[in-house]
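[step 3/7] inverse_fold.run input=structure_tokens len=533
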């Protein structure tokens, strides 16, 4: 009988009523995510400013801007670091335990946030090089936060509301982006009041006050604050029971740790821990047989989603300029531009990004992960095609509000859909000793997609006519065709979702087959993935 083989400590965690420690866990893990999002997205608020400060060309009609290769490096180097961090810390989290590694990633984030704002030198190349160096290692730390936060939350949660808890940690990302935008608005506004400057077309040199150089540094460095604040709490958090009992094989310690957390008595049951005879590894046939398709499902869906999700950054500035939220660069001074960009991004985040995340938190344990992911990919496909096919219609001035509404809906359904579920599911369906590794692999596939989305489309979306493309870029296939490609990518995501099993309302051990004595714990889970909707 399954129940007989299940450790009491897991049972206690699975059926625990939602209580205070659940919320402290959400906040401790969530603040890491808040910082991740702040750090990853705040760079896009200041890239225009960096161009004006360091790449000013005397006598040019429009303000200086980062050359394509520099722009790609500054924006993308953190992604490369994140990808490496997800794989490395994911593996380390299964080797050394979640808690040990959790403090390391946080320290790395704090140090690199501060260092990336200290790129001292007046030579543009040196500033960009040091900035990129520290952004890479900042990304490396952020990467570790993905698998660890998800795994810790899933191993602490009860089975009834586990989805909502993991999604709530992820939803802190929305607040991080929001926090970055609001902070940039406050700083740029404060500097504008203190240091008056004419627009670029009136006085090209005077439009960028020397003090503007502090603005981007302050914005980048403040990312260290929320992480530093939660460091102490992270150190106090006990190792998760699932790791202690199933991986470190110390059921007694697990019981005593969770007795403190749950504030109830849990007896240690040393004899039951020998349950798993077969300890198959990540590259074994056994893993391929049980979880091969699951891992394929979680990696491909996350990869495809992030291509679409991160390509938004490209269209964002074009869209803002098109709607007239952001006037043309030469009519503003440097600080005003930061202010306007931050304001536009914050509005979009408030209207579509943040609500989407919390819709997922509210419905994930009611509708299930599978249904939300399918629905999200479906609507993203529909809206991408609806933007692409009549694209010429949307460009007209009268229709641009409609364009923004459609565009916002696409990203609402990314967040109330695959953006959240691809993060939740890998933390639930793999065995404890491979859980953080598999989550790291899935997340790294996502970051690969993010790079394709952010850079591939930067080149793809350029005008077909080289003369009309942005300075320094080759001709592309145009925005319309790029949107069609994105629609097809979302449709593929819809199809690959069918590989992923539903984990709603099941215990972690039930999903991974870890509470069975024999090696066949899972036939049920994989074959009936669609029977429970």
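[step 3/7] decode complete -> sequence:
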């Amino acid at each position: 009988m399954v129940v007989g083989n299940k450790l009491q400590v897991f049972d206690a965690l699975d059926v625990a009523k939602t209580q205070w420690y659940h919320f402290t866990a959400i906040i401790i893990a969530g603040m890491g995510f808040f910082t991740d999002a702040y750090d990853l997205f705040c760079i896009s608020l200041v890239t225009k400013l960096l161009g004006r400060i360091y790449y000013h060309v005397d006598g040019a009609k429009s303000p200086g801007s980062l050359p394509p290769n520099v722009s790609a490096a500054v924006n993308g180097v953190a992604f490369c670091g994140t990808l490496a961090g997800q794989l490395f810390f994911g593996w380390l989290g299964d080797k050394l335990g979640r808690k040990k590694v959790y403090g390391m990633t946080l320290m790395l984030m704090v140090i690199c946030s501060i260092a990336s704002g200290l790129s001292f030198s007046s030579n543009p190349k040196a500033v960009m090089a040091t900035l990129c160096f520290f952004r890479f290692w900042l990304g490396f730390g952020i990467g570790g936060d993905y698998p660890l936060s998800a795994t810790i939350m899933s191993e602490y949660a009860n089975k009834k509301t586990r989805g909502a808890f993991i999604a709530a940690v992820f939803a802190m990302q929305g607040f991080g982006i929001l926090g970055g935008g609001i902070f940039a608005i406050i700083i740029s506004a404060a500097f504008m009041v203190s240091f008056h400057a004419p627009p670029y077309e009136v006085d090209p040199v005077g439009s960028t006050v020397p003090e503007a150089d502090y603005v981007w540094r302050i914005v980048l460095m403040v990312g260290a604050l929320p992480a530093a604040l939660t460091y102490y709490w992270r150190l106090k958090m006990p190792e998760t029971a699932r790791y202690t009992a199933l991986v470190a094989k110390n059921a007694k310690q697990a019981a005593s740790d969770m007795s403190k957390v749950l504030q109830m008595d849990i007896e240690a049951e040393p004899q039951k821990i020998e349950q798993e005879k077969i300890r198959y590894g990540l590259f074994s046939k056994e893993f391929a047989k049980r979880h091969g398709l699951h891992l394929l499902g979680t990696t491909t869906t996350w990869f495809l989603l992030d291509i679409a999700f991160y390509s938004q950054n490209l269209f964002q500035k074009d869209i803002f300029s098109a709607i007239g939220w952001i006037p043309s660069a030469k009519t503003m001074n440097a600080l005003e531009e930061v202010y306007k960009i931050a304001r536009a991004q914050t509005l979009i985040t408030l209207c579509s990004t943040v609500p989407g995340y919390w819709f997922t938190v509210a419905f994930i344990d009611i509708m299930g992960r599978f249904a939300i992911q399918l629905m999200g990919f479906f609507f993203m496909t529909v809206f991408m095609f609806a933007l692409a096919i009549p694209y010429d219609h949307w460009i007209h001035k009268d229709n641009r509000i409609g364009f923004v509404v459609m565009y916002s809906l696409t990203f609402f359904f990314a967040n109330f859909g695959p953006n959240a579920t691809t993060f939740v599911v890998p933390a639930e369906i793999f065995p404890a000793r491979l859980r953080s590794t598999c989550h790291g692999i899935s997340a790294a596939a996502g970051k690969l997609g993010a790079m394709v989305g952010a850079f591939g489309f930067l080149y793809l979306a350029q005008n077909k006519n080289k003369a009309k493309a942005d300075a320094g870029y080759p001709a592309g296939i145009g925005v319309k065709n790029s949107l069609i490609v994105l629609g097809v990518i979302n449709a593929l995501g819809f199809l690959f979702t069918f590989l992923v099993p539903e984990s709603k309302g099941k215990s972690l051990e039930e999903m991974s087959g870890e509470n069975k004595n024999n090696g066949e714990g899972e036939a049920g889970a994989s074959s009936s993935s669609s029977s429970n909707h």
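[step 4/7] annotate
DSSP finds 20 helices and no strands in the chain.
Residues 320 and 326 are 6 Å apart (CA to CA).
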